[in-house]
Amino acid sequence: MALIVQKYGGTSVGSVERIQNVAQRVKRWRDQGDQVVVVVSAMSGETDRLIGLAKAIQNPPNPRELDVIMATGEQVTIGLLAMALDGIGCPSRSYTGGQVQVLTDSAHNKARIRDIEGANIRADLDAGRVVVVAGFQGVDEQGNITTLGRGGSDTSAVAVAAALSADECQIYTDVDGVYTTDPRVEPRARKLDRITFEEMLEMASLGSKVLQIRSVEFAGKYKVPLRVLSSLEEGEGTLISLEEDAVEQAVISGIAFARDEAKLTILGVPDQPGVAYKILGPIADANIEVDMIIQNIAADEATTDFTFTVHRNDYQRALAILKDTAEAMAARQVTGDDRIAKISIVGVGMRSHAGIASKMFAALAKEGINIRMISTSEIKISVVVDEKYLELAVRALHSAFELDKTA
Ligand code: ADP
Ligand code: ASP
Ligand code: MG
């Protein structure tokens, strides 16, 4: 007998029929003798709808109240799934995050899980019930409802799996696994049977929304075996492997991209100690996350240009702050662009192979795509390009690195 945590995403519970399909799947596992905890998302489109409602009343919405509103999406799904299970003779019980006691910090809209009380869940499992838990939501120490950030049900599932020392956490979604890149952008993308945890972490943090990054972090930290698979088709999906040796070593495993980036440049700032701090300090104080940073030495060697990227949602705020900074520092000019995208190639094989960057740049040059920024780490290379080239760049790189062919 195994203890399995299964998570079903928005599309997988997007209609009454789909919820009934999920119930059938869950029952099959239970009938096989496994103990099953199911974590569900809101029905597809529901979270966006709720955010829209909130914004129609107050924009930007009060973060605490927004959590109260958004959390209702998942509460509906748990109730419906529990009823569907009941209807096919599979005893179950639904729980909100607060009822389980998914304890989080108080950072509304992006809370982090601190602890999960497993006792309730265990008691139900031991009594032969399937436990249905609302993803995406928790409760802070004061009893306020919190949510974990978009895509957060993945993290709820992995955290529940960790708390229960589950044998496997299965993320059921609308694709049958993790692909070499988003199949919606490159139809020739290939499903990976396995990907290392480290690569998955990079892919997620560089924009692959198939798994929320925190879910991957959790899986690594607590050694939770994690698998991504389809809720509609049968198959083995993709195993996020904790052992690197077991994985066939392609040099590049995948391509991730993020559309929602923006870049800002401050030109002609004095080149002296403390400059980076003066520029980025106020940005950090405004709680704006900075991603890539580049500093150039200008030709006159007395001044420098400084460029960084932020999430597109933070662009206007960052621009206003940077303009104030520029004035205070007597900088020459501030420029910005919120129509950029970041594309990254990821692979642990990069550690032992030279020439990957030049191959990447050559492939982009061949398509006439201008690279606006570059950043590298041990297992990834990222470039910033104009957003209009995103699809073209992803496909060009996919084919240059022959990702459609089995390694
Ligand atoms: P869910 O609602 O089940 O959580 P998501 O929409 O969050 O589903 O994640 C699944 C989607 O992730 C897929 O439909 C796919 O378009 C996208 N995606 C992005 N990158 C990848 C990738 N490398 N492999 C598979 N899917 C990806
Ligand atoms: N329903 C939430 C969202 O749309 C959480 C999730 O689907 O994982 O972001
Ligand atoms: Mg998701």
Quick synopsis:
This protein has 407 residues and is an alpha/beta fold. The protein has 12 helices and 18 strands. The two termini are 35 Å apart.
Architecture overview:
The chain is of the alpha/beta class and 407 residues long. It folds into 2 domains: 3-174, Carbamate kinase (3-Layer(aba) Sandwich), CATH 3.40.1160.10; 255-400, VC0802-like. The chain is built from 12 helices and 18 strands. The strands form 4 sheets. Strands 3-6-2-1-9-11-12-10 form an 8-stranded mixed sheet, with helices on both faces. A hairpin with an 8-residue loop joins strand 4 and strand 5. It is globular and about 75 Å long. The chain starts with a strand and ends in a 7-residue tail after the last helix. 45% of the residues are buried. Magnesium ion binds at residues 9, 151, 154.
Defining traits:
single chain; 407 residues; alpha/beta; Carbamate kinase; VC0802-like; 2 domains; 8-stranded mixed sheet; 6-stranded antiparallel sheet; 18 strands; 35% helix; binds adenosine-5'-diphosphate; binds aspartic acid; binds magnesium ion
- Count every beta strand, where a strand is a DSSP E run of 2 or more residues: 18
CATH H level, superfamily name of the largest domain: Acetylglutamate kinase-like
The first-level CATH class name of the largest domain: Alpha Beta
Return the average pLDDT rounded to an integer.
Answer: 94
Distance between the termini: 35 Å
Poorly predicted regions are: none
Largest sheet report: 8 strands, mixed
Number of domains: 2
CA-based gyration radius: 23 Å
Strand content: 25-35%
Question: Residue share in helices?
Answer: 25-40%
Small molecules bound? adenosine-5'-diphosphate, aspartic acid, magnesium ion
Give the class from helix and strand content and strand pairing. alpha/beta
The helix-strand sequence is EHEHHEHEEHEEEHEEHHEEEHEEHEHEEH
Please count the helical segments. 12
CATH topology of the largest domain: Carbamate kinase
- Order of strands side by side in the largest beta sheet? 3-6-2-1-9-11-12-10
Tell me what the CATH architecture of the largest domain is. Answer: 3-Layer(aba) Sandwich
Shape: globular
